[in-house]
Amino acid sequence: MSEVYAARRARLRERCYAAGSASALVSRRVNVRYLAGVAPRDAVLLLGREEDLLLCGAPLTGRDAEAHLDEALRVHPLPGAGGDTAVAAADLAAAQGADSLAVEEHHLTVARHRAIRSVAPRLLLADLDRSVEQLRLVKDEEEISCMRVGAEIADQALGELLESILVGRTERHLALELERRLIDHGADGPAFATSVATGPNAGRRGHHPTDRRVEEGDFLSVCLGATYRGYRCEIGRTFVIGTSPADWQIELYDLVFAAQRAGRQALLPGTAYRDVDRAGRQMLDSAGYTEGLPPLMGHGIGLEIDEDPQLAPAAMGKLDACVPVTVEPGVHLPGRGGVRIDDTLVVRPEADGGPELLTITTKELLAL
Amino acid sequence: MSEVYAARRARLRERCYAAGSASALVSRRVNVRYLAGVAPRDAVLLLGREEDLLLCGAPLTGRDAEAHLDEALRVHPLPGAGGDTAVAAADLAAAQGADSLAVEEHHLTVARHRAIRSVAPRLLLADLDRSVEQLRLVKDEEEISCMRVGAEIADQALGELLESILVGRTERHLALELERRLIDHGADGPAFATSVATGPNAGRRGHHPTDRRVEEGDFLSVCLGATYRGYRCEIGRTFVIGTSPADWQIELYDLVFAAQRAGRQALLPGTAYRDVDRAGRQMLDSAGYTEGLPPLMGHGIGLEIDEDPQLAPAAMGKLDACVPVTVEPGVHLPGRGGVRIDDTLVVRPEADGGPELLTITTKELLAL
């Protein structure tokens, strides 16, 4: 695996050279992890002229020490506790004779940036910008297989919940039980705070579970995800409780289902981000649901639960193959509840069968 | 409650005036919450010349809308989605005629700072520094009572666990069960990732629970905390599994207990932070445990699990009354395990009975 990280660093180095910087300082933790395989707290990565260094506040221990098998990356623990690793990295870059250093201005604070300037006043500080985030956009098959395992875990946890008695249980307890099941099935942990929403809460994006209990006739919407080896996935489903859904429930469900399908079908290399959004949005729009629509129909997913690209009306750019995204339209009717359907998929060319669905739990309207 | 937040903002405003800034921009989320009572994602607080504004990406909903009863603080949702609230705040400050604006340079990124400069080029940007963190150090009785409830919840969760069968269960399952019990007893959630460490892992600070099972003869150390109305607490205890602890276990336990007691007894107004650290540290030191000691004996606690002050060898400053802190010495012997004992207390003057212990679970060495 260590060659993977070295290759990622080589790609970043090329970008830096092209932009005129011989050295780069990566401070965002998720970016450090992507490039180094490990990311101890407060560690930063220096891509130097002579070598790559991982600067840590303390020597690697436990899982990090086991995971670090990368001989091309030297670990450099700071001698004293409490030192700033970014400042130490800039100091080292200057000592190695670098004349410029690209830093992550979207992450580094003004105070740290000033401390770097004062320790290495002759170093020209450039902006690395979101270069690492851009590298992270297209995933390799190893990354995608981690996401596939995470999606299987989430599907299992959800499937088991559906086999249990739901009426009378609170949103909070159902959410906790789902998170326990994620861990039982081997997840590192939940990918985000599990959302369980019943009755009038159903269909609300990011609803925080309350003490409301599941009742007959409710919509029940659930959104959960597993983290597996650092990679996240997301699945959302809506069910009805009781024997027969009401007409308005069936109608609303069918509409959101159709919008979500349209979004999924648009996931092909070369499709503009905004066109994926539009595919789903215009279906909801033309059914009269213009108010309260989510600001986006989906987003990239990987080491972070919400990363580039945004599938939103004003987004610029086009999908590439091997970009995992969510498609998650929803409609919420105040006081009545609503429907959200959410999948994680990987963009694949039509020749390879089109978009690969990672979260395979059925999207039929189940009456539980 | 809304007067509480207005009074906090008034204190911050005084500090700003004294430092020469008529306006301040608070962007750190926990600081926004402290000053406004609510902190929607990406919201910032502008203390302006004319009025205080909470700038949000979207109108307040759900719990935030219910919690916001503060008439002295106007909520200002940005018109378009995706706008930067900090940039919009600077724009407003300039429009209100401010000539300087103090910002949180330890939180604001270089990129956001630059965007602020470019939208309001005539505004002099000063550094608010950690002014809000300093205001947060001394807690009022309302804050302390939230922490007291949180500590009761953590004590209950821990007490119930001790009544159950432990041998054969994994660290991960015990940690999950503790977190479930925290929620059952009314916590918003865990205050941090619950740590359960058995056998050779016991006594390691911040140990991530593994699949190791509890065995006869083990040390078992547990560290957990509840969040209640945003306020956090922390408790850590070490037990032995089986009928009779070994001599080395009793000896080590007694030593850590004595060090922790010395640290607790030092918690009086006017004591230097470093002297609290020294009180515990020198006891471990003189018993020969110089290696592998934690870098600090405790820290402040409140809206964050780890906030000012640090009770560490090089810390500057003295304790005030009504500052909640942890006291948490520990010794870990590689390959054998160790002991940590951790309490949350509030500094109180001797006339009021001295330090108030919030986490009251017994610190006798229990054999379970």
From TrEMBL, chains A, B:
Coiled coil: none annotated. The lineage of its organism: Bacteria, Bacillati, Actinomycetota, Actinomycetes, Kitasatosporales. Pfam families: Creatinase_N, Peptidase_M24. This is M24 family metallopeptidase. Residues 146-348 form the Peptidase M24 domain. Residues 8-138 form the Creatinase N-terminal domain. Transmembrane segments: none annotated.
